User: Fold this.
Amino acid sequence: MTAEKILLCVLDGISDRPCPEFGYRTPLQAAHTPNLDTLAREGICGIMDTIAPGIRPGSDTAHLSLLGYPPERYYTGRGPIEAEGCGIHMERGMIGFRVNYATIDDEGIVTDRRAGRISDTGALSRAIQEEVDLSSLGVEFVFRSGAGHRAALAFRGEGLGAAVSSNDPKKEGAILHRFEALTSKPEDRKTAEALNDFARQAGEILREQPLNQEREKRGDQPANMVLIRGAGQMGHYEPFNEKYGMKGSVIAAATLITGIGTVVGLTRVDVQGITGSANTNLEGKIRATISELEKADFVLLNIKGADEAGHDGNAQKKKEFIEVIDQALAPLQDLENCLIAFCADHSTPCSVKDHSGDPVPLLIHGEGVRVDGVDRYDEIACAGGGLHRIRGEYLMPVLLDLVNRSRKYGA
Amino acid sequence: MTAEKILLCVLDGISDRPCPEFGYRTPLQAAHTPNLDTLAREGICGIMDTIAPGIRPGSDTAHLSLLGYPPERYYTGRGPIEAEGCGIHMERGMIGFRVNYATIDDEGIVTDRRAGRISDTGALSRAIQEEVDLSSLGVEFVFRSGAGHRAALAFRGEGLGAAVSSNDPKKEGAILHRFEALTSKPEDRKTAEALNDFARQAGEILREQPLNQEREKRGDQPANMVLIRGAGQMGHYEPFNEKYGMKGSVIAAATLITGIGTVVGLTRVDVQGITGSANTNLEGKIRATISELEKADFVLLNIKGADEAGHDGNAQKKKEFIEVIDQALAPLQDLENCLIAFCADHSTPCSVKDHSGDPVPLLIHGEGVRVDGVDRYDEIACAGGGLHRIRGEYLMPVLLDLVNRSRKYGA
Assistant:
């Protein structure tokens, strides 16, 4: 028997370094994780450099690598991925940007980079989409709200470049910057000109919006400016179903991860109540995953809360959330006809409060895997496993081969 | 807590193959090494191919790789590195050479390739520097004494190539060769012409030197010729402090290793009484290292004696020197705020009497490392460690990540 489907379960930032509060064990070592441990006992383990040894991955580059799209060949910056994550369909050559709604005063000083953490920006984004006009520059655009104060922008047109600066001064109390081309190339100058025009028009439109006038009356910061950064030109991603012959879906709270999924051609599955934090609807996410696996051949599931605890430097919270994750994973033990790979996209050590290049623990469970002697899913136990140490870009080939979908190379 | 500094301790040629005299254990397995073993127990171990599996490294290419300058991209021959090691500041494009002082007879036959192992050549080199004149060819040069009978030469000028042969017949009793261009390119011909002129003038000057006349009177071989080989054009090395954001130093007896260090921008630290042999001043070297780590962020320490014993094929001497090294390393156990990596640059098996491509044992000790179950620093124990098997070019990324100096790739 061979499994036919693949679940890639990314336990975002779950791995760590030894923490003094746990007697120099990691939160994953310290946590009580009976479900993951059972899966480890029945599966094969190893460690993985999602990009390469010692390379500190972003979540975006790491997920690209895990999906078999090595970032050194595919990654063109965060903008196009965030744009996809906000539901903009990025075509090759389009320029994508991350956007924050922000507040500026009459002098052009940025007084709040998140506009009082505004959250319901749909009407504002629709107004921008309808009223901003860049046609005199030959530029079309798409503008969409994201989660909270976030949004995304994409430009389409002839002769547009991505080497441009941002208007975000990166700190409050500083004056809004002008966009500048970072080279003397006409395409970068054209993009900078279009961005300056876009931001000016958007500011004028935003000031007239009833929502902002209400906010000001209430004493809230109005969202009267857009801060635009992370410019990147959309590249060519061979669609996932053509590359692997599998229909795939993505389930994740973070727009960055759903963006990566949709960029490579995965179908985005929305689940009510998922937040990417410890209060997320984990059970719903697992139910949605199991149900999606009835239709799709491949599901990328990202579970984010442990990463957040690592960024906060809170080892105790991280351990507790790992235990919550482990409980939520219980139904996966009954999944039939499915290979499951558990890994992280990167370590997020509490001592670092950011990603690190430490390898992540990898566990593959399902029909056909060679079972090793590892009986615990953690950084140290997995290092002794039968998969040894592999790179993220080889994970998909290994999984495809285990479901007999790899192509023979040679005769 | 995270360490801030890095000590890279290269135990030159320490690893080996099984030796019959130790019941088919290696000298490192047979040696009593309580300090290295304690560090192994407290750290994480693995094995490393300094260049790639099965590739037999030179000390120069191996050290370049360990410092994160992969030799396939950076190495342009030994000449420029030896020149740096002799204190010549090599600028990009200069041609560097290794030099031996030698003895020839009136017929031009090389009678001693090392001029009776002459050692005090400072006056001879100064005379060459002052009196040889290549200005008619538009070539400037720098000539410096190295250790013993060794010296180095560098050419600077327009249109100089490095594809030239040597005047060294490689054996005694053979006639001095003429330098030849190895291609028909004018730049290689110009270098060959300059070398022939240089060697002729140097020979004439050397014959007039009082030191040589005294040596002849004493019955010693006069240093009346220079054998020049290892031509290489200096390439561009991104300076270590710019590449890594760390101020680094190198402590080594061999000019080849200090040369590599200074080529990539490390500061050379001289220690009295270090010879690269078993009689070296090891305690002084360790003291200098600890003291240097107060000023520098990174120190490359090379300890050479075990390599020499391997080249001699003397397993017993190798084992004994390994025990001397282990004793000398004791003070490193008290080093605070410092990550220490122990490795070799290559194996030097006593059965081979030369370098081999066998992987070298790697041990990383310090705050933040994930401690594995290895409790012994040797070739076999380390192969079971949590680092598995990595390549030399990833050592610096791994170490930088452990001191939180790696750059995030992506978002």
